[in-house]
Design goal:
alpha/beta; Arc Repressor Mutant, subunit A; hydrolase
């Protein structure tokens, strides 16, 4: 382990060794932020943390693969397979499949990609006899995605006066109805889009304290790469998981776009 730490500069080494509470690393691209997470996970393993109790979240499959490959080179493949390391969507998909009964879904629910989502929206627009030049599928898809990432359900969307007035000014007052139909159709098909994975995980943890407690106790340390890219839904899930032990390390490259992180040790 000393040889591994010797490969880090003083600032990086300090982050790897600090495990008494939340920490945040803000630095520019190419400064070794992801490397810090890789070495920190390796260090945690050397300190007796069981791999299946470490959660590492990334934004892309490529980043997840690179992280796993680096950790495997420092440890072994068997250890890496036991880590909960992957993209936000892949990890929350795994959790929702395990806990599907709590959100009234079949454990084998389908995932709709962007094309599936847009095709469903087009079908709903035809059903409602709406002009695609006004209600452009991409625009509608973006509105629904933004709502979910802000933790706004279809039911809440229709009750949000500010949102309804905004849509009216944008000449798309029926977005709320499209959103409601979209959600109903997804439910009927036992399907979730990528944004729904985030929304449903939040609902799961919000409404079922015993489930949240189980995952809080399970994950002893949480690490997040490219934290500046988190939306409200992702931030809320991470915050819930860590609200008791506060063992979390996040890295990002833009302090201005990172959500407030109380009690963080900023290096």
């Amino acid at each position: 382990m000393l040889s591994i730490l010797d490969e880090l500069n003083d600032a990086q080494r300090e982050v790897v060794l600090y495990n008494d509470g939340p920490s945040m690393v803000v630095a520019g691209a190419g400064s070794g932020k992801t490397r810090v997470l890789t070495y920190k996970i390796t260090y945690l393993l050397s300190r007796g943390y069981e791999p299946h109790r470490i959660l590492a979240l990334t934004f892309t499959n490529k980043a997840a693969r690179e992280m796993k490959d680096r950790i495997a080179a420092l440890t072994n493949e068997r250890t890496v397979r036991q880590l909960w390391a992957g993209t936000f969507h892949s990890i929350f998909y795994r959790i929702l499949r395990e806990e599907a009964e709590y959100v009234d879904y079949n454990p084998d629910f389908t995932i709709y990609d962007a094309a599936d989502s847009r095709n469903l929206i087009r079908s709903i627009l035809r059903e409602m006899q709406l002009d695609e030049k006004t209600y452009r599928p991409g625009l509608v898809q973006s509105r629904i995605s933004n709502a979910k990432n802000a933790l706004v359900t279809a039911e809440a969307y229709g009750r949000n006066r500010e949102q309804v007035e905004y849509d009216a000014r944008a000449h798309v007052p029926l977005i709320r109805e499209i959103y409601a139909r979209y959600q109903n159709r997804c439910r009927q098909a036992e399907a979730m889009d990528f944004d729904e994975l985030l929304l449903q995980t939040n609902i799961l943890f919000r409404d079922h304290a015993e489930v949240l407690d189980r995952y809080q106790r399970h994950f002893r340390f949480v690490l997040v790469d490219e934290y500046q890219d988190t939306n409200l839904a992702q931030y809320a899930i991470v915050n819930r998981l860590c609200e008791k032990h506060r063992h979390i390390c996040v890295v990002g490259d833009d302090a201005q776009s990172i959500y407030s992180f109380r009690g963080a040790n900023i290096d």
